[in-house]
Amino acid sequence: MSKIHVTTTVNGDATEFLCDPRETLLDVLRDRLSLTGAKEGCGTGDCGACSVTVDGRLISSCLMLAAEAEGKEIGTVEGIATGEELHPLQRKFIEHAALQCGVCTPGILVAVKNLLERDPDPTEQQVRYWLAGNLCRCTGYDKIIRAVMDAAAEMRGAA
Amino acid sequence: MALDEYTEQTGGPADEIRSEFTKVGTSPDRPDGIDKVTGRARFGADAYAPGMLHGVIVRSPHAHARIVSIDTSRAEAAPGVKAVVTRADFADGQSGEDWAVMENVMAGDTALYDGHAVAALAATSLLEARDAARLIEVEYQILPHVTDVDEAMKDGAPVIREGAADNSVPAGMHPNVVRYHSSGHGDVDQGFAEADLVIEDHFVTAATHQGYIEPHACLATMGGDGRAELWCCTQGHWNVQKLCAATVGIEQSKLRVTASEIGGGFGGKTTVFVEPVALALSRKANKPVKVVMTRSEVFRASGPTASTSMDVKIGMKKDGTMTAARGVFRCQGGAFPGAPMEFTSMCAFAPYALKHVSQIGYDVMTNRPKQAAYRAPGSPMAAFAVESVVDELCNKLGLDPIEVRLKNASRMGTKASFGPTWDRIGLVETLEEAKAHPHFSAPLAPGAGRGISCGFWFNHGGETSVTMAMSEDGSAQLMVGTPDIGGSRASMALMAAEELGIPYENVRVTVADTASLGYNEVSHGSRVTYASGLATIQAARDTVRKLCARAAAKWGIDEDAVTWQDGCAVPSGPNAGDFDPLPIDRICRVMGRTGGPIVGHYEATPEGAGVSFATHIVDAEVDRETGATKVTRYTVVQDAGKAIHPTYVEGQFQGGAAQGIGWALNEEYVYGPDGRLQNAGFLDYRIPVASDLPMIDTVIVEVPNPGHPYGVRGVGETSICPPLAAIANAVSNAAGVRMRQLPMRPSRVLEALEDQD
Ligand code: FES
Ligand code: FES
Q1: Does the residue B85 lie in any domain?
Q2: Are the C-beta atoms of B523 and B483 separated by less than 8 Å?
Q3: B595: phi > 0 → left, psi -120 to 50 → alpha, else beta; which?
């Protein structure tokens, strides 16, 4: 089957790739662009491990065809830190031990960063509902929520 | 861990239990933290190799069917396909568990459950592989099936496999009953006669899945010379090496297994599923092959836990004294022997000092996937049944649930329900802490209920090797063989730094591959911090002895006259001589000239388990219109022996509680009348999401384990033992009706409420 040529931006870098019409954005990020931070936990939009942003909107990259990325700006976990410097959310996740195995962490970081860009001062309940599409089997979410609230407070203070 | 592996604690190792620490007990950032928050950490599916093929497995759509024929010719001719394998491409002649694993990895004559692998192929792309897999034609002769544990024991039930039972099974049982356990002491009938109230009830729990977010994944490379490399997400790569060698038919040493970062396991990644298949495909195609399970394959074909049917009977006096207890536990573990019924039996009454106690377990086969260990295998179900009956007795006799448990609690010196005499244990301490916790005395909202439960789990030692190599600058490289599932690198580094007296940052912990270190048993039985930790401490002490010897040689004094303090060799007293402390980096800098590399080892099988107990308190609200339950407050009190990294200990407590909440309220394997799994995805198999749960409070109790140099008890598993019962008690108390079947999904709660009206 002939491949489709796609021009896009990933974490600020202009990027081109060829893909099969059936490949998902997640397949291409991982298998063609070597961005394996996004994980496939289910492939059906139920776990959030593949969360990325497309033009600033949070999506499950397993549900989007790669060809649809034409002209779009993609954000993945690899783009959250600025060079060596971790994003406050990343620092707080380590500090609060908000990860155990860490396989859900990339998707959760992408999701909560997107939340804080929309609402820098969410309530605990808002964070819990925003994250309801991101499964974590290890932590019971307690420390994740605390890390998000703490990072949000720090970011508000810094702003 | 097998039943006979539990050994009584004998007062611990030669060293005294250490209680003063400078680093242990703090919670520094984990060494792999940055990798895991930046996406850099490499998990099972994150490995790629030049020329790599993608493997796909064809699975039976039938619960039970004879495989008449498999025609692979069309698939072999399909674009991109490089290899197709069936059972004929694997070794034969295995026995025991190796045979069961072989049969489960790739069916022989008969598909034993919906999802059972029957063939596999590898192609240059995943899409091509998936397309070609549809071209494999399997002709099945459908056989009668059974998926329910009680049905499988009845006369006339379809037989999964004749002759599968071992000689523990009493004569006259259905051939699906394959193992039997009986233990206890005293005379239960006499005990029941002494009681003022006896309650006997029937309880049922559904099979649940470990639910790790990372599906099984591996990358295998095998050449024509039989040498192979395997990268996979596993809790135990030495076990993977052994099982793959047996199924693929090569010597163990020809296969080097490297453990990737692991995206959760909870017991489910202690065996193999796709790894032998990837190796067989790689051997045939002579190229690297990657196999990654889909989520639906994870549910259909990797290990869920056992489902159970249980009868529990307990007698109590008016003052709360338990007079006798009896339990019958029927556990279904899929189409192979191995349901953890002996643990269910042994854990059931472990929290109680009972004069008369009896427990019986049955391991029953059905047409379901082969069960795999799940966090404290077997114990949560037993606690559900037993602690529900205890709660009912307390309610009927008007007694306080914590006082009753305190009155009957197992303590040091009492005889455990399954035989040994308890050494130092912390059950009473967890109960006292729970009683004193503000949660226990907080007023309840109208319509809410509160539940209490205790829980028990062994913790396992097991074969362990650890190597500590000193660098010339005085930093240490620690090689362990137990994959880091939840921050264990941090705990190991803390213990090593504590012994060596160097900064935590100066210890690098590596999970070594099977070619680089001696044998290590899998990361299970909460053994990592306990056994690998013990091994780390001993390897560090071995290193310190060698460091002291170098100082002794330099000073020209006896080795015994040197001790180790704060990272320096020092003369052990005025008689040893007057020398300035010799710091670790100065000893290591010259090690090449003073006798060569300094490397400490530990290779042994730590005996004796650091058993642990927990008490959980739960508040729940039940919506009487919809039957939906909301857990509104949750407190975990657990004995950790000694918390090495307290924040990660809390995390283990919270994670176990959350999994327990899912098990209690939502999660279940649902089989249709056709014997097929109806809910093989996260949408229909609903694990708790962030908006389902409250914050989970934790209290770490520290009653030192006499079998560990720092007093550590494993913490990972005990936390899932009490939740099923604690939540069931909360829901029953809120709804005013006893819930005896899990999960307590809304429809089931509604039915119970309607029956009550
Ligand atoms: S992998 Fe995309 S939501 Fe699970
Ligand atoms: S930390 Fe393991 S799934 Fe979230």
Answers
A1: yes
A2: yes
A3: left
For residue B486, pLDDT over 90 is answered with no
Contacts of A80 in chain B (CB under 8 A): 37-38
Q: At B255, which CATH number? A: 3.90.1170.50
Cα A158 to ligand 2 centre (Å): 29
CB contact under 8 A, A101 and B690: no
Question: For B488-537, what is each residue's pLDDT tens digit?
Answer: 899 999 999 999 999 999 999 999 999 999 998 886 666 777 788 889 99
Mean pLDDT, rounded, of chain B:
94
Rounded average pLDDT over B477-484: 92
Distances (CA, A) of B526 to B162, B278, B455, B718: 35, 29, 15, 9
CA distances for A126 relative to A108, A148, A149, angstroms: 14, 11, 11
Residue A99 near ligand 2, beta carbon < 6 Å: yes
Contact B322, B408 (CB under 8 A): yes
- Burial of B43 (C-beta count, 10 Å sphere; 0-12/13-18/19+): buried
CB of B655 within 8 Å of a chain A CB? The answer is yes
What HEC string does B54-104 produce? Answer: EEEEEECCCCCEEEEEEECHHHHHCCCEEEEECHHHCCCCCCHHHHHHHHH
Residue A103 has pLDDT above 70, yes or no: yes
Last residue of a domain, one of B604, B629, B658: B604
pLDDT of B349 strictly over 50: yes
Residue whose pair of structure tokens reads 């954005």 in the numeric block: A25
Touching check for A6 and chain B: CB below 8 Å? no
Is the minimum CB–CB distance between A67 and chain B shorter than 8 Å? no
ipTM over 0.90: yes
- B660 and B717 share one domain: yes
What are B263-281's pLDDT values in tens digits? 999 999 999 999 999 999 9
Do both B122 and B250 map to the same domain? Answer: yes
Which residues does a 6 A CB cutoff place in the pocket of ligand 1?
A 40-43, 45-50, 60, 62
Residues B234 and B247 in one domain: yes
Q: Does any ligand 2 atom lie closer than 6 A to the CB of residue A47?
A: no
Q: How confident is the model at residue B455 (pLDDT cuts 50, 70, 90)?
A: very high
**Is the model's pLDDT at B608 over the cut of 80?**
no
* B680: containing domain: 378-459+610-756
Domain range for A41: 4-79
* Beta-carbon separation of A101 and B264 below 8 A: yes
B482 CA distance to ligand 1 centroid (A)?
28
